[in-house]
Amino acid sequence: MTPAEAIASLDASLKANGARISVYRYIGAVGKDAPKNQVTDVPAFVRAVSADQLVGNIDQTGLNIVLSPTLLADLVPLKKGDKLLIDGRERNIELVKPIHMQTTLVRINLVVIG
Q: What predicted TM-score, i.e. pTM, was given to this entire model?
């Protein structure tokens, strides 16, 4: 499987079965009216964290998120402190786990809190 095929496969699965979220990064002061880079209607797998992930700041409200890099060119690399809007609730990215094939980013796994 090539990186392009891996991304296409993930995109198809997310499109068919994923939730729709927004991904954004505040620029400057954080607040309702602060300018931000934002991508809306991003397909994502959203799952509760597992018991073994309950360490540090991560509690039972934490979520595991799977994203494709396809729509996120303006925000990659995602980083701790970037935001997701899931079901009307703003969540903070706590942990970013990029997956590469060769040198190509093919998947982004996140742990979010808030």
A: 0.87
